[in-house]
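Rather than argue in generalities, we have chosen a single entry, letters for residues, whole numbers for local backbone shapes, without further comment.
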Amino acid sequence: MKDREPTDAATAPLRKVAVWTPHLRVRTRPDGTQIIAQADPLAPPARHMSDRIAHWAEAAPDRIWMAERAAGGDWHRLRYGELADLLPRIGQALLDRGLSVDRPLLILAENGIGHALMALGAQHAGVPSAAVSPAYARLAEGAKLRQIAGQITPGAVFAPDPDLAGIARGVLAGVPVLAALPEAAPGRVHQVHAALTGDSIAKFMFTSGTTGAPKAVIQTQGMLCANQAMIADCYRFLTEEPPVFVDWAPWNHVAAGSKVFNMALHFGGSYHVDAGKPTPRHMAETIRNLREIAPSWYFNVPIGYDALCDAMEGDAALRDQFFSRLRMLMYAGAGMAQRTWDRLQALSVAATGARTLMGSGLSATETGPFALAAVADVAGPGNIGLPARGVTMKLVPQAGKLELRLKGPNITPGYWREPELTAAAFDDEGFYCIGDALRPVDADDPAQGFVFDGRTAENFKLDTGTWVAVGALRAALVDALGGLAQDAVLTGENQPRIGALLVPATARIAALLGPEATLDDPRLTALLRDRLSDFATRATGSSTRVSLAMWLIDPLDPAAGEVTDKGSVNQRAVLANRQALVARLHSGGPGVVALS
């Protein structure tokens, strides 16, 4: 396709796509607490996800459900009819091995068809599964893996990779390790399956555990199905044609493992497992897949979108293929810079003559995850939208902010075998305390959506007692640095000034200054100082003025929890692991750029 005539992306039309038209009901209590919900009720959800599998197996048995790259590089595909045939066989084999709610299936595997079949086969038989990051198995001699197993007491481990299987046998002595899909002739699995209800536990999803032991969040069939009913109301275009997904995000995280994974099943879509990741080493695999498969709904974290923009800006064929049937771009995991947003929209306009809908949201493992979503046509990132149908949002004034609490059929009943933690997670009205703060885009019109105003656990006070809203400031700083930094970790608790440890965007720095440029290059230091100074002039006070910065020369360490499996930076883990560097930043040591 030839490039189109240059068009201003800001004034280009939006590609037509069917999404919700929300109608809010807002009540304000005398203490300032707001109760906000959609006025329209949520459509009745499915009984459990297997109902949707059965539907598509009958309606479109030959449609591709899932595809992954085989060893030779070709796509291995499984169809809906084959999926429905395999699940009772796998489920029966697990029941024959004595698996149950109290002896669930632990999955220690990367994303793939085998992983998916084991999880769904277990669900079909009423056996919860728990997908655990393979990285956990390699951390501290398997300490986190041992903690997780201690909480859920697995009856078996699925580990098709020989290395991971060996680790599991050593760490989880006595727990059977399955290296291949088990099958058995269906028997009592049919009766067990027929007895499933919305309260049946489908899986356990683990929180990151960066500040303690990972917590096993209960995910019921009702939660999963309610989430999909909410998504169907919000992203209405998904019902118009079978969606196509090309997704890399790990299934041990709720955004991919529950939301996107089940979106394919609910809407009869095709899920292409992307073995790439938004890292310099693995991004080429993502680009390879996107050259072949054009998604209709696409998710990535901002750093992944930056890398994708770099590739598409030099390759019109890739750009045109990527946008050819795309209906929506979704970002999460970190705040997106305006520059990245503008690049994506410029590429969309060059490929199609129109902008593509871009949105985000707010979710948690405990919310299933879908809770708040943004699908309005807006000019830039930051808006996380409105509560989905069926979700009631409570905003409680706390320390000058609005603390978010949520209630709905998508909310977890609690943490497995942790009654005290469960009780502490809910307020006296049964609202889940998510730990985030929000602020309205327009204080006089809640329908305009809300903006993330920081994690209450991440925010800190300067020595003056002034609160720093980390989330919003971090995103604004990265945006102001104009592509020099991929992300930032903010510092300054009990200090007079805010500092930032910057994750360098090495490819962008090399493009600006040449491949020979290093992080101590005087030209880079001058450029950083100029952009930091410009950002400081726009500060409204000490809580928004970043006056200290230095580069993180040693790469972030995923094994130490500094980077999540989704590619986002874990602020708390970096601060805990690099205390000496934080001290150096605030004492004015070598490499520090300090504003007066």
In short: Residues 80-96 form the longest helix (17 residues).
